[in-house]
## 1
Amino acid sequence: MKITATADETIAAFEGEVGHRKDQSWVSGTGCPIAGAICHDASPSRQPKIDFAAHSWREACIVDKKCIPAGYTYLGQLIGHDMGHAVPINQVPYAVRPGDSVSSPPRRHNAIENPLTLETLYGAGPRVLPHLFDQETLLFRIGRKSIITLAHRGDDPSVRAIADARNRDVHILHRITAIMMRYHNRLAERFFAALPANLADRRMLAFCMARNHVLHSWHAIIRKDFLPQVLDAQIAELSMEDLRQYPVIDAVTMQHGLMRAFHAMPRKSYKFPEQRDLGALVLRSPQDNEHKLSRWSLDWALFFTPDEGGTKTGISASFSPAFRPRGGVTIDQLDARTARDLGPQGLDGPDIKAVLAQMPSDWSSRLEPGSLAQDFTSEVAAPMGLELTEAEVQRCHIHLILMIEAQLYGKSGRFGPLGSLLLYRKIEDAIANVRMVDPSAVAPDLPRPNCFIQIINEVNS
């Protein structure tokens, strides 16, 4: 079935997603009662009560949340990119599945076909991505000591050997991606050396075995390193049996509700050990920044080790106003644009209501809009002369709700109970659906890291 539209309608749909739409009054101070952040059905006449991206608000919110080493901000981004890549459904042909609603089709399509299999790193594999993989060795096109990926063309450093463009422009995320690529290459070389020399497809076997081992490492890091940093302690202690009693949220709620809450974590500046402004970490102009940053030595222990004295962060009810990843537009404005395009996605959404219905009542009752507004006002907003109303909570997009919950009930910079449940359940469900082999019998002395700093030390040794 072909969907028809006029030329103007078609152009408007595509421009709206890529950020060319001129009218942004819906995120301005007069268009949204919570300025810059993520509510819907707002009355144009209301003045903003709280600006979640204001410098003063940000500094007040983050002061008690600075507990998580800042590297987990970007590790979380890589996990989010490995879980999904949601694109507007009207921009891609899609197949209707049994049970899909004809009257209210999905607004987004998940372009990641296999969540948590590092598709964001490997793409479609070496046979179809010659810019990403050397066609003789089937290794990633990256030097053994490179800290960012190699330029695909020498005269254009902005086109690099990287599978998922979302991993390129934030410099730290780019470097984490490069570390994973180098880790794969190390393993592939060891598998190649261990395999019989007369095997016809020895290089491809080495690639496949290395990818499986990398994925085993990746899941261990997510479970043993990343989740303990961001989950509420009570939720983290749930047995798998108890966890499975909770529903799994859909891909859109995960990508545009849950994972966007991680946008609360970027800090204005970082110790590496020198002070670096966040703006310098976003590669807006490759010709000016990329070569300089590609030679920049970084102390990763400051970024991932809690007791090393590096920059700390946490999930709070605020955005860093310095985080401007695209064309000078702040991240809260980009999030608000997506919230508008998706339509209502709040506490009354079916996925969220299903989880709340399973939660202990003393947890879920705190998330009733009236209770959440009252508690947040008394404990967070009132000391700054501000107020969050029940009506505003009802209009808030779910990822801001999770940030508000984390501010109130999250300990040590972590999510609150609801955010923790959504994340833990979704990740464990995705991991449970992955099928892979353990190739360690071929090369039994391979590294088995369970935290990301161990992979960093492995590739840098």
## 2
Amino acid sequence: MTFLSSLLLSAALSGGGAPTPPASLTARAWVLTEIAPGGRVRRVSGERPTLTVTPPNVTSKSGSLTVSGSTGCNTYRGPATLSGQRLKLSALATTRRGCAPAAARLENDFLTLLRGASHYRLSGQTLTVYAGGLSRLVFTAAPAAATGGSMPTPPKPPATATPPAATPLTAAQLAGEWQLTRLREGGKAVNVPADALLAFTASGANTLRLSGSAGCNRLMGEATLGGANLTFGPLAGTRMFCEDMAAEQALTRMLRGTGQLAVSGNLLTWRGTGGELELTRRAAVTVAADLGGTYRLLSVSGTPADASRAVRLTFNAGQLGGFDGCNSFGSEYRLDKAGQLTADSLISTLRACPEQTDQPSLTALLGKAPMLRLSGQTLTLEAGGEQWVFEQE
């Protein structure tokens, strides 16, 4: 039976309305194996883009379905319309994390062809999406076991057997800074930089803000707790290119979807379909007395500070103050157990400094409730993708 015949039969059985894609198309994910922009064919290896087709709602009359997946670096999602073998995609939404040059080129070609899709053909385990002329994307069906396809149904336990309920975790238990000590992807260990870490800040009883780095770019996002599971939302990040990005790329691939979480003392383990993370809690500064003194700015996001601006930050008995290179400022502050610094009712002088309008603003950073870390005489503030490093005078 051809794909078109299957499609017409599905529509007939459902009593009309929106055409229903066959189960052979929607029951699994599709992995890109070949891409041909303008007919120039090249094989795809390494971290390959994927495509998943989700059927339209049974009440839909427009034939609208959803396509989603990975570009090999970012994730994407958007509506599409099916009519026979014609395929029309609407606007695709994507995350915007930084990619290595080769991955960025593949992502651009992949999304360009996907957005220009005109029709497709399904033949056994192969799906071909055509984008006009000789341009096309060729996918191979992923193994059903890895994508939630057809699996044998396990026998039901006896009615009297009630599994013990897992103790639900709370966002407060995860809040803090965690050193990434072990990363395994696809059963293989990945070398982890010594400064790789993730920081969680509770934004609700079961929701968290995430920031961190695996040695190159700053990563930011959100996560949600559900019992003993932790689900990561789309990650954003800076877009720098570094010589060694293997750990960062592995980490961003893994932090997608839901995984099982376990916390034992200062050890946190997260296991998802892609692999496993192991993190160790880092000690946080918890009392104002630990911060007492004045700190001079050394760098902002890796760029050495302008010595002529003399930017300084002072902590004293629950008060913070300083000089941002133009104006003086001050306020009371609070520091929670996770190391998040909150400046209450920050007051600043209003001197105009037009020559510094393009410079990063310390008062703006303090207004974002940055994460604070103190190691010896080095104090670090991080928020909004910026990292400010100070040295105690």
## 3
Amino acid sequence: MLDPRDEASMRHWAEKLAVTPGLLREAVAQVGADPQRVGAWLLRRRSDDHAVRRRR
């Protein structure tokens, strides 16, 4: 589990998932501390970001 109160844990997971700690905190706030759910949320967000860029 991700522990948003543990800075070392958040840095570890942010690096592992290739995101900023701020984005990781946003993901945890949205879906909870389960790494699989966080990863899925981040993937959806990335695909949404890419869709917006393609439409421009």
## 4
Amino acid sequence: MAVVIPLSAVAYQSLRVPLSGYAVRLDLQQRATGLYASLWLDDQPVLAGVLCQDRTWLVRKTPSALPGDLAFADTQGTQNPDYSGLGSRFVLVYAEGSHVG
């Protein structure tokens, strides 16, 4: 089952969300070269500065206790996300059981 993570259309944001029983902190930062994500699981770093791309898993094969993965999806095409469309055009989805690592 997929869960949509609520986001705001701002260039930098930090949010905490419960996912699969874990306290997850997600930082998103827009830079000139794209949108980047950093992820903490129960205050332990999992990812730092990963480029966000359309329909591409963020965690991938990174060793993590999180039993799922996160990906952005463009609801109007196949562009990579940018902050101006977060929460509307670009949605962030968490899918449990999708982690390939």
